[in-house]
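PROTEIN DESIGN WORKSHEET
SECTION A - STRUCTURE
LENGTH: 323
C-ALPHA CELLS:
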C-alpha cells in the first residue's frame, strides 16, 4: 500500500509521525505545495492513502475524478472546507480526520492558535518586527508602543478559541467586548466579555481579533464598512481564515492609514503569492499560517493519522468525516 503525505513544509512528518509502525507500507512525503491538478494527479498516482495537511490542498470533485487509486483521505483536523465530502463518498473514498490534540480539555486544543494570536497582538502594539529590523540596521528606539492595559479588546467570534483569547485579554487588564451572529449577552458574560452590537465592536475596539469559522455568512464579514468604522489607532488581527476579511479593503485601509496596523496568519490564497499587495502594505506583521504549527500539535496529528490508517485497514475506520 502506498501513502503520500502532502504539504510537509517543515519536513516534520517523518520525525513526528510513527509511519514505520505500519507494516507493508510505502510512504512518500512531499515537501512542496502542488497547486495544479495535473501535477497533483501525477504526484498521487498509485496512492491508496493520502494525508492532507489542513486545507493546504483542495480535494474537489474534479480532483477525485483524477485519482482512481485513492481509497482513504486523512486530513489533519476534524473539519476541512477544502474537501468535498459528498464527492469523496461518490468516488468511494473514506475521509477521516484527527482531533489535533491528545488533550481532553477543549481549551488546550485551541491554545496554540490563541498563543499565536497574542504574539501578533503584542508584535503589532509594541512594533517588535520594526524595532528588530531597525536595531539590526544600527538604529535605536524608533517607535513608541501602545499599552494594552486599559484598552478595549474586540473579539469577533466567542467560541472555544475566542473565549481563550478573551480571557488572556482580561489578564492584560483590557476591557473585553464581543459579537457574532449567534452570540448572546449571557454567553458573552460567561466568558468574561460584554456583548455589544456589531457596529460598536468595530468602533470601540482598540484591538479587533477574528475567531470565526469560514462559512457563507462569514465570508467577507469584515469589509470596507467595518474597517472604516474602526479607530485610526486600532489594529486588526486574523488567525481564523483569510476570506473572512476583505483582503482588498484591508490593503486600502492600511495604505490610507485609516487603521493603525494588522497582524495576519491567514490569507485568501495560501501560500501567499509573491505579488500579493499585503506584502507591501505598511504596519503589518505577516505569518505563514502558523497558528496550529507546534511540535506537540504535529506529533499528535501524525500519531492519529497512523491510527486512522490502521483502523481503516482493519475494516473499522475511525474519526470518519461525512457531508
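SECTION B - SEQUENCE
RESIDUE ASSIGNMENT:
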Amino acid at each position: 500500500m502506498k501513502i503520500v503525505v502532502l504539504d510537509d513544509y517543515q519536513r516534520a512528518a517523518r520525525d513526528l509521525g510513527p509511519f514505520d509502525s505500519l507494516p507493508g507500507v510505502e510512504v512518500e512525503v512531499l515537501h512542496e505545495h502542488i497547486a495544479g491538478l495535473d501535477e497533483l494527479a501525477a504526484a498521487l498516482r498509485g496512492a491508496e492513502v493520502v494525508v492532507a495537511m489542513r486545507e493546504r490542498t483542495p480535494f474537489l470533485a474534479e480532483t477525485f475524478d483524477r485519482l482512481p487509486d485513492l481509497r482513504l483521505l486523512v486530513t489533519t483536523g476534524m473539519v476541512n472546507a477544502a474537501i468535498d465530502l459528498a464527492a469523496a463518498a461518490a468516488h468511494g473514498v473514506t475521509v477521516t480526520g484527527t482531533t489535533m490534540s491528545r488533550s481532553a480539555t477543549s481549551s488546550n486544543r485551541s491554545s496554540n492558535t490563541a498563543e499565536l494570536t497574542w504574539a501578533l497582538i503584542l508584535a503589532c502594539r509594541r512594533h517588535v518586527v520594526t524595532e528588530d529590523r531597525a536595531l539590526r540596521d544600527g538604529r535605536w528606539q524608533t517607535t513608541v508602543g501602545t499599552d494594552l492595559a486599559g484598552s478595549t479588546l474586540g473579539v469577533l467570534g466567542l467560541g472555544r478559541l475566542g473565549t481563550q483569547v478573551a480571557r488572556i485579554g482580561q489578564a492584560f487588564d483590557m476591557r473585553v467586548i464581543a459579537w457574532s451572529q449567534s452570540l448572546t449577552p449571557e454567553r458573552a458574560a460567561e466568558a468574561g466579555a460584554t456583548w455589544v452590537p456589531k457596529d460598536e465592536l468595530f468602533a470601540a475596539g482598540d484591538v479587533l481579533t477574528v475567531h470565526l469559522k469560514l462559512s457563507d455568512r462569514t465570508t467577507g464579514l469584515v469589509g470596507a464598512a467595518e474597517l472604516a468604522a474602526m479607530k485610526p489607532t486600532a489594529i486588526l488581527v486574523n488567525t481564523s481564515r483569510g476570506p473572512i476579511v476583505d483582503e482588498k479593503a484591508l490593503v486600502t485601509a492600511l495604505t490610507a492609514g485609516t487603521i493603525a496596523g494588522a497582524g495576519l496568519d491567514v490569507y485568501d490564497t495560501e501560500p501567499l503569492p509573491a505579488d500579493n499587495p499585503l506584502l507591501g502594505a505598511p504596519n503589518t506583521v505577516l505569518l505563514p499560517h502558523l497558528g496550529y504549527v507546534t511540535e506537540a500539535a504535529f506529533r499528535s496529528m501524525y500519531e492519529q493519522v497512523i491510527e486512522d490508517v490502521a483502523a481503516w485497514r482493519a475494516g473499522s475506520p475511525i474519526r470518519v468525516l461525512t457531508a
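SECTION C - NOTES
DSSP finds 13 helices and twelve strands in the chain.
The two ends are 27 Å apart (CA to CA).
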